[in-house]
Write a structure and sequence with these properties.
- The structure is a single chain.
- By secondary structure, the protein is of the alpha/beta class.
- About 35% of the residues lie in helices and about 20% in strands.
- The protein has 16 helices and 20 strands.
- The strands form five sheets. The protein has a six-stranded parallel sheet with strand order 3-2-4-5-1-6. A five-stranded antiparallel sheet has the order 14-13-12-11-17, with no helix packed on it.
- Strand 13 and strand 14 form a beta hairpin.
- Helix 2 packs parallel to helix 3.
- The N and C termini lie close together (about 10 Å).
């Protein structure tokens, strides 16, 4: 095991950035780590590398949303915890966690990964921490489970009622005793234009200067369409997405083709729907605007979020769609397989086309994606960080068109800003500690 770990670590250092390697080594050193960073800093990529590096036995990968969980081959945090919404009294939550299948998961868990932490409610985190200690009969923080937590609190907050202020995980009573290291990735990889990166950083921090306003307002005239591939509209409400995509598909001439997924357990289709990034049924026509939902060939530009248009269908076999992508590749898109986690750790799978209609997509569902061409209407923005999440999906300013821009929609939660200010004050101490962890790992392998 030590030899395998050493070989993998040497390979990983060749491809990860220095700050990503520091996070990885802290995890391999057994530390409870929270790592964060702005959109496009490679958090998802690093998390996948962490998942791949840890022993599968005893490692549970979770996320606050089903789609995010699917990307790392895990399940939702709520499904893992087995305590429902967590709103019940602690005694009742502990009873729920004592059910045979759920209890065994808690006992088996040695490392718990949580992605998209910004959307996890602080009180729910405290409930999990107390449940872990009780079920595992261990008074160490989180019952002795190593925590690897990832996300950006300046992106989407926990879902709350309109009259309630969100309570973030870093505001949970147990957060500070559970987390050994807070680490921030700073190297942006999604965008290469330094001016656009600077603009996005301003928006992330809730700052909308005259220059930011001017640049975003000017994008309203951008012609981002090319080769018949239209801009994807990012919407604040999912009802607008469904209405737009259905209407646009119906208006296209020609035969509509239907592709039905093959699920490992058809009785759990709702569970699979909640986690899988593709629908059980996909309707397409020639001319349909589509988007890839999985990395197929990164070297050719066929990545999650890549935009294209259906140019036709195969005559033979299953009549699979031919798609011309904005990256210049035209290819037949075949069926892909997603492996998901079901109730009590069972394995589920779905085989389906890695495509979704892309005239519109919700801002929530766009998290983690990189879009070649995007059109954004921010008039109905209702959350802190929502405008930033939408804008930061674009790869470049030239591929972005912002409609009806209002500087008032650029907002950052003041409690989150304060949290990050404190993180940066501690940065040199954290980096020094990480370097020490790195050194110890190398010497111990």
């Amino acid at each position: 095991m030590r030899q395998v770990k050493k070989t993998w670590s040497m390979c990983s250092r060749a491809t990860l950035s220095q700050e990503q390697s520091m996070v990885l080594n802290a995890v391999l050193g057994g530390k409870n780590v929270f790592f964060t960073g702005s959109a496009g800093t490679g958090k998802s990529y690093l998390l996948k590398r962490i998942v791949a590096s840890l022993p599968p036995n005893g490692t549970y990968a979770t996320a606050s949303t089903g789609v995010a969980a699917c990307q790392i081959g895990g399940t939702t945090l709520h499904a893992f915890a087995g305590i429902g919404s967590g709103k019940a009294p602690l005694s009742q939550c502990i009873e729920l966690a004592q059910r045979p299948g759920v209890r065994q998961q808690w006992l088996n868990c040695r490392r718990l990964i949580i992605d998209e932490i910004s959307m996890v409610e602080g009180d729910f985190f405290d409930k999990l921490e107390a449940v872990a200690r009780d079920v595992r009969k261990c008074e160490d923080p989180f019952g002795g489970i190593q925590l690897i937590i990832c996300g950006d609190f300046l992106q989407l907050p926990p879902v709350t009622k309109a009259t309630e202020q969100p309570k973030f995980c870093f505001q949970a009573k147990s957060w500070r005793k559970c987390i050994h290291l807070n680490m921030e990735l700073t190297e942006v990889r999604r965008q290469t234009d330094r001016e656009f990166i600077s603009l996005l950083n301003m928006v992330r921090l809730g700052r909308c200067t005259e220059d930011v306003t001017r640049q975003l307002t000017q994008t309203a005239t951008h012609r981002v369409e090319r080769d018949g591939i239209l801009a994807t509209r990012l919407c604040t409400h999912k009802d607008d997405v469904e209405l737009t995509n259905t209407k646009q598909l119906q208006q296209l001439p020609g035969e509509q083709r239907s592709f039905k997924a093959v699920d490992s357990d058809p009785t759990l289709v709702k569970t699979i729907d909640a986690q899988c990034p593709v629908s059980s049924i996909i309707e397409l026509k020639q001319g349909a605007q589509v988007m890839l939902t999985k990395n197929l060939d990164v070297s050719r530009g066929l990545v999650n979020g890549a935009r294209g248009v259906v140019t036709g269908f195969e005559m033979e076999r299953r009549g699979l769609p031919k798609v011309r992508f904005l990256c210049g590749v035209t290819d037949v898109v075949g069926m892909e397989r997603w492996v998901l986690k079901g109730p009590a750790g069972t394995c589920l799978s779905r085989q389906q086309l890695p495509l979704k209609l892309a005239w519109a997509i919700s801002i929530h569902k766009s998290q983690g994606m990189s879009l070649d061409c995007a059109e954004i209407s921010l008039a109905r923005v209702f959350e802190y960080g929502q405008a930033y999440v939408a804008l930061s999906r674009a790869r470049s300013l030239l591929g972005l068109r912002v409609l009806d821009f209002d500087p008032k929609v650029v907002r950052a939660n003041p409690y989150v800003l304060q949290f990050y200010r404190q993180l940066r004050r501690d940065k040199f101490l954290t980096q020094g500690f990480c370097i020490q962890v790195n050194k110890e790992n190398i010497e111990g392998t």
